Amino acid sequence: MQIVVDLNRCQGYAQCVFLAPQVFELHGEEALMFTPTVPDGQHERVRRAAAACPVQAILVGEPAGVGAP
What we know:
Strand order of the largest sheet: 1-4
Structural class: alpha+beta
Largest sheet: 2 strands, antiparallel
C-alpha cells in the first residue's frame, strides 16, 4: 500500500497523526511528514486516517503492478 498526501490541501488538523502515528508525523504546527510506503500492520490505521481527514488530502492505493497477472 502506498499513500500520497496533497500538501497544498492539508490544513494540519493532524487527525492522521493521531490515527496512524507510525506513518504520519507533524513537525511544528503545520508541516506534515509521512511514509509513502505503508509498513505492514499499518494498512487499516492508514485507511482510517485517510477517511478521517477533514479535507480529504490523503490518497491511498496500491503500487503500480501489484496484483497484475
